[in-house]
Design brief:
heterodimer; A: mainly alpha; MetI-like fold; B: alpha/beta; D-Maltodextrin-Binding Protein, domain 2; 2 domains
Chain lengths: 222, 285
């Protein structure tokens, strides 16, 4: 059986691995989105007390400053002393919390790109802070954030391939199976896998760019 | 922009909650034992057409049937397996695992079920022998965290007289391929795997053998918290005596001589002290 027959036979398993990678990606991006937006809002508009701001800053610095592979090991082996976490759960948590730290900074820059005068004007017109954020600042910041967010999306797709070190059988691990059971063919198999990652990346980014165009304010398109 | 908020945020929140509830693995007493394998390590364990195969896989299934226990396999890269066993993320480690003193401090071994010696693999057209291959500034490939790495470090690299650089790989197949490209000049690997590569038609040959008589065994977490060491020991001996072990090995490595079980049990392993769990008549005094 030559390698192309094996690849054809095992293609469903590569797709299954791609599926695991996609679920992991969506889960970690969602955690990152919700927490990241929350962190950003508290950092910009929350209480200025050190009791609130310092832990957030510490969180963001730590998760942006430690390699993801180390975070994966810490979450998988460290947490298991307290809670019997699955490999997939540990990967979602470690990568999601890390993505939150990155996304908080994407959102922070987007919010800060809205001139502060707008907030003051909204408050002067009698809007509450929350209303002003929701109706004045967020609609503009959200649009600014999509561009940098495509970056986060692209880099996280590729980082899902690291989850195999704690036993998540995603696309890269499925590729390892083919390589070792056929005793080689590293280039052929990884070329196919690279193509799969590339297609996923392009598809996701195209959707995000389409979303960006759809939301563009008439007269302000780039 | 209200549209984004209305459509994205609730979906994101719901997704997060749904994931949160799926994160934990709950442990019940009837749960099958989790057997950790490195599924890119033929002939011991590998995946073909989506199914686990290999000596360790088939033998583990036979042992489980013998002992009347349920098992499920969990694949992990080799360097993660022993930490996972030590942290009790898996219950049994079944792969071509060499018994070493260091490892026996962190995990408990079953009786040995195989014995290997290491060989020096070189490219087919190479004229190096076992001495010239491992000297004089050579880059030698090993699997990271393997007993070959430990042996090379202890006996060759740290001895100081021999100038050798170790290249550590995630698995041996990559190491052998890297040797074909010429990035390393030889690979130190156990004789079972080496025979496998030669049978598969890789352009390699054995330059020579290093007789270390290393026993291979299954392993459980230190202190045997699941109390399955006795079952495993009895199971290994039972499938050996029934001839099933011989058939499994013959299926994956045709023509190999099967070492007797129980084989050489090193003194430094505390679970090899008499009485051995499940087999009280065996063991070192």
């Amino acid at each position: 059986m030559d390698i192309y027959d094996v690849l054809l036979r095992d293609f469903p398993f590569l797709l299954k691995g791609l599926g695991v990678a996609i679920v992991l990606l969506v889960a970690l991006l969602m955690i990152g989105f919700v927490l990241g937006l929350g962190i950003c809002l508290v950092q910009l508009y929350g209480p200025r007390s050190r009791l609130v701001q310092w832990p957030l800053m510490l969180y963001e610095r730590i998760f942006r400053g430690v390699p993801i592979i180390i975070m994966l090991f810490i979450f998988f082996y460290g947490i298991s002393g307290v809670w019997d976490i699955s490999a997939f759960g540990a990967a979602v948590l470690a990568m999601g919390l890390r993505s939150a730290a990155y996304q908080s900074q994407i959102f922070r820059s987007a919010f800060q790109s809205v001139p502060t005068g707008q907030m003051m004007a909204a408050r002067a017109m009698g809007m509450s802070k929350i209303k002003a954020i929701r109706h004045i600042v967020f609609p503009q910041a959200g649009r600014h954030a999509i561009g940098p967010w495509t970056n986060e999306f692209s880099s996280q797709i590729k980082e899902t391939s690291l989850a195999y070190v704690i036993g998540v059988v995603e696309l890269t691990r499925q590729a390892h199976y083919i390589i070792t059971s056929t005793q080689g063919n590293v280039l052929t198999v990884f070329a196919v896998v690279a193509l799969l990652y590339f297609i996923l990346n392009r598809a996701g980014n195209s959707l995000l760019y389409a979303f960006e165009r759809k939301l563009a304010v008439p007269g302000f398109e780039k | 922009m209200n549209r984004i908020k209305a459509s994205l945020l609730p979906a994101a929140l719901m997704g997060t909650i749904a994931i949160g509830s799926g994160l934990a693995t709950t442990a019940f007493a009837q749960d099958p034992y989790t057997v950790g394998v490195e599924a890119s390590f033929p002939p011991w364990a590998y995946v073909e057409a989506g199914e686990f195969k290999g000596i360790a896989i088939d033998a583990m299934e036979a042992i489980a049937e013998e002992a009347g226990i349920e098992i499920e396999f969990q694949d992990m890269p080799f360097p993660s397996l022993i930490p996972a066993l030590a942290a009790e993320k898996i219950d049994v480690l079944a792969t071509g695992l060499t018994v070493t003193e260091e490892r026996s401090e962190n995990i408990d071994f079953t009786i040995p079920w195989w014995e290997t010696n290491d060989v020096v693999l070189v490219p087919e057209d190479s004229d190096l022998n076992v001495f010239t291959a491992v000297c004089c500034g050579a880059r030698v490939g090993v699997q990271g965290g393997s007993s070959q790495q430990a042996w090379m470090e202890e006996n060759v690299v740290n001895s100081g007289d021999i100038d050798v650089e170790l290249a550590k790989y995630d698995n041996y197949v990559t190491a052998v391929d890297d040797m074909a490209i010429g990035r390393i000049s030889s690979v130190i690997v156990d004789d079972t795997s080496a025979q496998e590569y030669i049978n598969a038609g890789k352009p390699v040959k054995m330059a020579g053998k290093i007789f270390i008589r290393a026993p291979l065994a299954l392993a459980v977490s230190k202190g045997d918290p699941q109390e399955i060491l006795g079952d495993l020991n009895q199971g290994i001996l039972a499938i050996y005596e029934s001839g099933e072990w011989g058939k499994i090995v013959e299926k994956y490595i045709p023509g190999v001589t099967v070492p007797a079980i129980p084989g050489h049990m090193p003194d430094f392993v505390d679970t090899y002290q008499k009485p051995v769990a499940g087999l009280p008549e065996l063991g070192n005094e």
